[in-house]
Write a structure and sequence with these properties.
Layout (H helix, E strand, L loop, with lengths): L1 E7 L16 E2 L2 E2 H8 L7 E6 L3 H7 L6 E5 L6 H6 L11 E6 L7 H14 L3 E7 L8 E4 L5 E5 L6 H4 L3 E10 H7 L16 H5 L3 E5 L12 H21 L2 E3 L12 E2 L3 E3 L3 E4 L3 E2 L4 E2 L3 E4 L2 E2 L4 E2 L3 E3 L2 E2 L4 E2 L4 E2 L4 E2 L4 E4 L2 E3 L2 E2 L4 E4 L2 E3 L1 E3 L4 E2 L4 E3 L9 E3 L10 E3 L1
Parallel strand pairs: 1-4, 1-6, 4-5, 7-11, 12-14, 13-16, 14-17, 15-18, 16-19, 17-20, 18-21, 19-22, 20-23, 21-24, 22-25, 23-26, 24-27, 25-28, 26-29, 27-30, 28-31, 29-32, 31-34, 33-35
Antiparallel strand pairs: 2-3, 6-10, 7-10, 8-9
Amino acid sequence: MLAVAVLAAGKGTRMKSDLPKVLQPLAGATLVERVLASCLPLAPQRQLLIVGHQAERVERSLSNLPGLEFVLQEPQHGTGHAVQQLLEPLAGFQGELLVLNGDVPLLRPGTLEELLAKHRSSGAAVTLLTARLADPTGYGRVFADEQGLVSGIVEHRDCSEEQRRNTLTNAGIYCFDWAKLAAVLPLLSTDNNQGELYLTDTVAMLSPAMHLEVADPDEINGINDRLQLAQCEAVLQERLRRHWMAEGVSFTDPASCTLSEGTRFGRDVLVEPQCHFRGNTTIGNGCRIGPGCLIENSSLADGVEVLYSVLRDSTVEESSVVGPFAQLRSGAHLEAGCRIGNFVEVKNSRLGAGVKANHLSYLGDADLGANVNVGAGTITANFDGLRKHRTVIGAGSKTGANSVLVA
């Protein structure tokens, strides 16, 4: 059996934010959501989140995740103290405990699968994830032989000058035999520079201890401040762009575009510079997006073109053209072959197939039939000061320039 514990109790003071560090956003999801998602392919029997700072806020943000157990660490006296809080909820549990950090969001599920497999095959009491870093400043150093057998871990602040020359670092990711860990957790001491209980000290108490060196050191990047958050965002964005280019999407200037993990592209999509995709967005085959677009929580069918425009919570059916300088707001639905042009705004409206609104119009709370031609400057006046009302325009109709339709 497998239990997963995520350490998420810290204050994250270096973020200088009212938002708990583990709730900081990264490519459309919070740090802790990314950590929890990385272990889902392992199908753990128990998932526990150790909370402390703003615990109620963290719990509320994750209340939609089924089966997640919250364990309070109050006060916070280090990583060893955090895992000590599991002694009661995991009493009698038989199996492995995977310990993750809520501020290390770039771990790939395959890496965790490899860590668990090595732990089980080696018969180790603990197996930890390690990485060799060009600049290991701030990371605990791992001391091991050529067979991967670990003799100890020393925190950076406690290292001698000679020990600091070791570039093999502790990623803070562990797989324990829970029964053996539970036996030594009460033995932890605060005899260190910080006066805290270090989970790393259990490695010297458990035998055998093994390590797995990760191939990509970026995976173990931790986040303590805004700079590191931006660096992790850059790594994640590069992963997402590389994935979609391998799937048949062309980016004219990849570095200028950002994606969310919920973005999905068809084949033969062309993305011009300065385009940004947010939330759960689907782009169909053969679309051309940009330059200069923001598309959020929207669905575009095959062959859609969007230029210098903003689309939020909208649906655009095949072969429609949007922009330049148009805005589709929540509830906008364009049927096939629509044309929405310069400085046109559409909100909570359904436009039938072939509708054209090329210039300077506002269509809000409206239903337009097929092949309506909206003259320049047409406005649907949908609000009487108290209530919204719908405007209905039948198929084949045409409005003249500067028309105001009062529902």
